[in-house]
Write a structure and sequence with these properties.
38% of the residues lie in helices and 19% in strands. By secondary structure, the chain is α+β, with helices and mostly antiparallel strands. The strands form 8 sheets. Strands 16, 17, 18, 19 and 22 form a 5-stranded antiparallel sheet that branches. Strands 1-8-9 form a 3-stranded antiparallel sheet, with helices on one face. Its main location: cytoplasm.
Length: 482
């Protein structure tokens, strides 16, 4: 195999001058037109097929291109007489241009490359090189007749099983693959044991002396064979006893296995019966549970709703009563209330007070002591519309209010009605600090809205975080409420 390097068909060597006016090359890319000539029907100019596809105008007169193959020009060009392009290198071929390509594929002076070592040269030189000189040429091993690269042949000889070597004992010529068999079975100078060594003969020597030893010691070998036969009979008798003992043990084990198999079958049967009974019980329990769910849960829900309605009505009645009494006291004293801040605008009419939800009253003792110890105080828990809550009060303040304000927070707790009320909690919790002279309470509203974080408005993972005011009221204003 070789790679062709020279294939110059675009600049042929014409034997005779080209007729005047005959176009032989494309005016754009200058390739020879004899393989694929095209003619422009608008102007008659010629160009190659490749240029006719990519151009829109004639390169010589700039008219629009409307080309088609020109077979007549192709026949004329192919009939022109030419030399081989390797004429100067010694090739004497002459012929028509149409046959030049076929000749170049076989031209002995064409430069090609060796397919195995990449050496370049004329075809006739590379042919000799590939068959006789290339170090990568394929040759046959003269011993095993397998094919290898010439450069690998010497390495192959070191491993070839048919390579001829000399026996290290008798110096006979043998193949490498036969060496082991030769030494174990044939080599006359190999050091071996007597053929009767298995019967007790201690002789050792060269294989070529084996025959003489056997002939001279027939009686000895016969006596050794008799002794070995006697030993074999004793061993055979002993083996028979062992076999009988093993057969007895096997029989015993088979009986034990049969007994265990019967016990297992009995136990499996018993367990299957128990499983069947348990499945029946489970099925019965499931049916009973479904009946209970259908009958008791609706009644429990109705009872819970009824109790919650009663608790809510009672709480609202108590609140109305207490607030009405408070309003009467305010009216009798003739005190008027002023708006202290923007957050008190919701609290400006008697009707608003009467409409409030259930109220939880909490009285804080030992305020000064707790303030000095910087401790937070937790109120007793309470329910409001089914939600379980408590207050967390920091007498000395917390966060931004530490040391200057009273801080108050609302915490949601896990309660008895969590499954029947909506979550997360959405609503308002009003916190009031009562005035010590029946004046207007200090009032703030904790709002739980849609943007309130889940940690503050649910109790799924335990009590919620506190939601409230780090600056509920300044310490300087507390003298009116203590």
């Amino acid at each position: 195999m070789a790679t062709k390097l020279d294939d110059n068909l675009d600049d042929p060597l014409y034997i005779y001058p080209v007729p005047k006016g005959l176009v032989t090359n494309c005016p754009v890319c200058f390739v020879s037109l004899y393989q694929n000539p095209f003619v422009n029907g608008e102007c008659g100019h010629h160009l190659c097929g490749s240029c006719s596809k990519r151009l829109k105008f004639c390169p010589e007169c700039r008219v629009s291109l409307k080309t088609h193959p020109d077979k007549s020009l192709q026949r004329v060009l192919k009939s022109l007489s030419v030399y081989c392009n390797k004429k100067n290198e010694g090739c004497e071929w002459e012929g028509e241009l149409g046959d030049l390509q076929h000749h170049q594929e076989n031209c002995v002076r064409a430069v090609i490359r060796c397919a195995t070592c990449d050496l370049e040269g004329p075809r006739d030189f590379i042919s000799i090189h590939q068959s006789e000189e290339c170090i990568f040429r394929i040759v046959s091993c003269k011993y095993c007749h397998h094919h290898y690269s010439w450069s690998d042949l010497n390495s192959h000889y070191d491993l070839c099983s048919e390579y001829v070597i000399q026996c290290s004992e008798c110096y006979a010529s043998i193949t490498r693959g036969y060496e082991k068999t030769h030494k174990n079975e044939v080599c006359p100078l190999a050091y071996v044991k007597c053929v009767a060594s298995q019967y007790g003969c201690q002789w050792e020597g060269y294989r070529r002396a084996m025959d003489d030893h056997v002939k001279n010691n027939l009686a000895v070998h016969f006596h050794l064979c008799l002794q070995q036969g006697s030993k074999n009979e004793e061993a055979l008798a002993s083996c028979k006893d062992v076999i009988k003992q093993l057969e007895s043990e096997v029989k015993k084990k088979n009986q034990e296995i049969t007994s265990l198999h019967q016990k297992l079958e009995s136990e499996v049967k018993k367990r299957n019966q128990e499983i069947t009974l348990l499945r029946q019980k489970v099925s019965t329990l499931e049916q009973n549970n479904q009946c209970l769910l259908k009958t008791q849960i609706p009644s429990m829900e109705n009872e819970m709703r009824r109790k919650m309605a009663i608790w809510q009505d009672a709480a609202e009645n108590d609140l109305r009563k207490e607030l009405t009494e408070y309003i009467d006291e305010c009216l009798e004293s003739g005190e008027e209330t002023d708006n202290e801040d923007d957050e008190d605008d919701d609290y400006d009419s008697d009707s608003d007070i009467v409409k409030q939800k259930p109220t939880f009253f909490y009285e804080l003792y030992h305020f000064v002591k707790s303030k000095n110890k910087d401790k937070d105080v937790l109120s007793p828990s309470f329910y409001a519309n089914g939600y379980h809550m408590r207050l967390r009060v920091h007498p000395n303040g917390y966060g931004r209010g530490e040391g200057s304000h009273l801080s108050v927070y609302v915490c949601l707790l896990q309660g008895n009605f969590d499954r029947t009320i909506p979550w997360p909690f959405r609503g308002e919790v009003i916190i009031e600090l009562l005035h010590n002279d029946n004046g207007r309470p200090h009032r703030r509203i904790v709002k739980y809205e849609y943007d309130t974080p889940i940690d503050f408005s649910t109790v799924e993972n335990g009590p919620s975080k506190g939601n409230g005011f780090p600056k509920f009221i300044a310490h300087s204003s507390l003298h009116n409420y203590l």
